[in-house]
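Notes continue from the previous slide.

Worked example: a multi-chain complex. Inputs as given:
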Amino acid sequence: MTWHATLYIALVLALVLGAAFPLGTWLARVFDGTADFLAPVERGIYRLCGIDPNEKMGWRGYALALLALSVVHFLLLYAILRLQYWLPFNPEHIPGMPPGLAFNTAASFTTNTNWQAYTPESQISDGAQMFGLTVHMFISAAAGIAVAAALMRAFAAGRIAVLGNLYVDIVRITLYVLLPISLVAAVLLLAGGVPMTLAGFAHVHTLTGGTQTIARGPVALQEAIKELGTNGGGFFNANSAHPFENPNAWTNLLEIWLILVIGFALPIAFGRMVGRARDGVALFAAMAVILAVAMFGGYAAEAANNPVLVHAGLAAAPGNMVGKEVRFGIVQSTSFNVAATATSCGAVNSFLDSYTPLGGLVSLFLMQLGEVAPGGVGSGFAGMILFALLAVFVAGLMVGRTPEYLGKKIESREIKLAMLAVLIQTLFILLGAGASLLTKSGLGSLASGGPHGLSEMLYGWTSATENNGSAFAGLAANTALLNYGLGFAMLAGRFAVLIPVLAIGGSLAAKPVLPRSAGSFPTDGLLFVSLLIGVVVVLGGLQFMPADTLGPLAEQTLMHAGKLF
Amino acid sequence: MRAMRPAVSLVILFTLALGLVLPALVTGFAQLAFPFSANGSLIARHGQPIGSARIGQAITGPGWFVPRPSALTGTAPDGRSIATPYDAAQSGASNLAPTSTALAAHVAARIAAWHATYGAGPVPDDAVTSSGSGLDPDISLANALRQAPVVAAARHLPPDTVIALVRRLAARPWLGLIGTAHVNVLRLDIALARAAAR
């Protein structure tokens, strides 16, 4: 651990955590309706779309609206991808996507996953990037935050039957949060060297007399919302390792900040909404501790030399540079990838398949924890609330009291729904990866032998189910098995979590807020933060230990024994 | 069906506003305010674009500074997979596992080739490992300084001239924190050609 790496990680954390407080305060004002300087624009949108802003939805109405919006958007994206050859802004004459790949991609972008089984440079047009993918990045991010807002309202008041209006929430979150921050970020990225052109690929005669075709396109705007909305879908195949997506160390730092900032602002907004700021800070602190441990751990793993390459003759390497860019080095690479897998972003600025086994495990494990440190925009907050409910439940069991959280009694229904959300993800990850490896097609997708092959498949199913989108990219994912299998895993991982979350919201909203008493378990102190981290690690992580042992941990041991595949 | 009206309208509105109008506005702004970046940082030599300042090129020695290995591959006319280093119409990494025999073999072969060209001594790790993008425009400062004497000899330039060139073009981390010590290979080679022509 060099002093420079330690300081860099500290700087990243300080920039993100510091900004989360003012942004969280602003988010609370967006959620409760007091931010309204764009009210005329809002009214215009509501009139145009036939939305009644005064109609409030119960949890079922909110969930149905979320599903309706997702279905419409899924179908539109599927059509755009299939028909992109005939649509405008296709300077490279890219053909329409085949059905399986289009299904997988539409599922991927509807669910905020941004898993990419396609190769962007040759398989998606500038037009589909803009009016297909970029639009989804805004809407799926806004939808995730909207669900978090609905959940916050369930705690904020007693005996209410409604959680808000999904459409109004999505419009307001887009107008007041995503759009302004994305625009500022897009300008900064442009200043840093990210292109924004509709002129198609550039063709040049190189310095030494060859020719080079250079892929470019309308990158800057998509890059901004890709990170801010924890979407993660790269404009290019190399994602944020591509010099046009992430040209230098400053854009890299900006992108890390964008990935993390809303996730950390949400618990702060929550504290404001429920009028118990310290409880919001407690959730925030648990997220921050897990992220900090992962950032230092991820760096330490990659700063260690790969003994296999040392044996091949690489003497005094400062770390594992395979699949990493020189302008980022080690710590600025690992910090980015940890940020992107601690959230549902899944962007990468260096390639995880070539990370050391432990370095890859950090990202894999962060996803398996359920992406709650701080997690995807909205979905991460919702996941942390599920763990908070389970934590007070565990504490309640220990002392034999009915558990309560923020004055709401937590009963059997809420705990069952929370466990359902946790277990559905486990089911898809472990059964999906296991079953795939029993098929010829699944084995054929692996790029590596030995335990690393298992890691590739396990990572793929984890990433899809957790709506992350990063990959051990050697895995050949554009097959019927994985296009459809992972496509359904993404849909399940999104909706089989968000809908139980809304159901919990509905059930909690109807309950009265009990006054704090001497017997209430304090949920704003160090004890609760420790308990919460413990529950996240034990409940979220332990179920994957056997699989992770056979994959990355076995590989780490074999690597040091010099065993190659 | 009436319940679907807001969902359908909102998706259409967002598609038009965020998918067409907004990118058009940002593109227009970018072309006015940041024309160099917006068009891919293309640099010209004798009036012709010769590449992007941000994208590496498949430059080979001995009279040039050479970039890192690139893992990009393409398909030959006869269907075989062939190496197409720095083919910027695509991007990507080798994705070889840390315990891959292929990775160990590639690195060992590159180390042997390095020693043959640049002599004995420790090998800069970025010189024998392929990057994430396959288009990495930079090499580490240490790598460039190791290449400099060999490049200078091939060009019949004093080594100190070439080393000074490397040091002048090198980027260094801000406060030792943000960034790394590296050199952009294309810019360095352009400057080298200019120095050699003098």
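Summary box: Residues 3-270 of chain A form one domain. DSSP finds 20 helices and four strands in chain A.
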